[in-house]
Every structure is written in C-alpha cells, then in structure tokens.
C-alpha cells in the first residue's frame, strides 16, 4: 500500500472516531436534559407540598392553598414539558432525521402542547388564548377564578 492510501485510511478512521465521540456526547446531553426535567419536577412538587403544608397549618396567604398548590405544580409541569421537548428535538436532529422520526417528534410536540394547554386551563380556568382578554376585562385576580 502506498503512503497516501494509508494516510487517507487513517484520516477516515479518525473522522469516524470523532463522529462517534460527538454522538456519545450528544446522547449524554440528551439524557442529562431529561434527568434535569425529573429533578425539576421532583423539587417543585416537594417545594409546593412544603408551602402547601405550611399554609394549611396556619400561615396566611393571599390565595387559596389548594389553588396555589395546583398553580405551583402546574408551572413546574409546563417547564418540564418544555425541557423534554428540547431533549426530543436534539435527539431527533442529531441521530435520526428520517421522515418517520420527524413525524414522531411532531406528534410528541402536539401531545405536549395539548398537555400544556390542559394544565393552563386547570390553573387559569380558561383557554390560554383567552387569558389576556379576561385579565384586561376583569383584572388579574378575578380572571383566574372565572371558568370558560
């Protein structure tokens, strides 16, 4: 074999190894992002439960303790959904950009959007696109208690 062929072979092998190392780092990043979402929801539930227990044990607040509890958990769920969508996008773009994987990602995003909307409806009592209109009509405190 000539020196040029050996050099080209070595360059190809090093490119394959570098590509593999990048894939490992991307996979690790995706798993860390998913783990972050688990940590966020776990800490948020623990914190919301702590605040809720303090409130029902006699601490005064401006809001109903159950509504405040639902709002805290709902906001953390929304944040977690956004983080999980980011992890799915990174994984799909980096590893499998086939039509099927992109379609699956699209369906996951749609499901998570619907989940997010249902959480907002549960927290606010109205559809997400009607919140601003209700707040401008009735004021911020009253709109959260009105049901659509």
Determine the N-to-C terminus distance: 77 Å
Number of beta-strand segments? 0
Whole-number count of domains: 1
The assigned structural class equals mainly alpha
- Give me the Rg, rounded: 24 Å
| Strand residues, percent | under 5%
Question: Would you tell me the overall average pLDDT?
Answer: 80
Which stretches are low in confidence, meaning pLDDT under 50 for 5 or more residues running? 142-148
- Percentage of helical residues? over 70%
- Could you say which overall geometry the principal axes of the C-alpha atoms support? elongated
Give the topology, please.
Layout: H1 3-56, H2 65-95, H3 99-124, H4 131-138, H5 140-143
Helix pairs in contact: 1-2, 2-3
Explain what the structure shows:
It is built from five helices and no strands. By secondary structure, the protein is mostly helical. It has one domain. The longest helix has 54 residues, at 3-56. The chain starts with a helix and ends in a 5-residue tail after the last helix.
């Amino acid at each position: 074999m000539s020196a040029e062929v050996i050099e080209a072979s070595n360059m190809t092998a090093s490119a394959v190894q570098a590509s593999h190392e990048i894939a490992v780092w991307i996979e690790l990043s995706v798993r860390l992002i998913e783990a972050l979402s688990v940590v966020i929801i776990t800490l948020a539930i623990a914190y919301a439960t702590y605040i809720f227990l303090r409130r029902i044990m006699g601490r005064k607040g401006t809001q109903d303790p159950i509504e405040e509890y639902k709002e805290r958990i709902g906001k953390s769920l929304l944040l977690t959904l956004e983080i999980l969508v980011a992890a799915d996008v990174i994984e799909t773009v980096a590893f499998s950009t086939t039509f099927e994987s992109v379609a699956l990602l699209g369906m996951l995003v749609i499901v998570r959007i619907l989940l997010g909307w249902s959480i907002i409806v549960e927290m606010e009592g109205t559809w997400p696109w009607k919140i601003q209109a209700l707040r401008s009509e009735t004021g911020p405190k009253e709109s959260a208690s009105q049901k659509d």
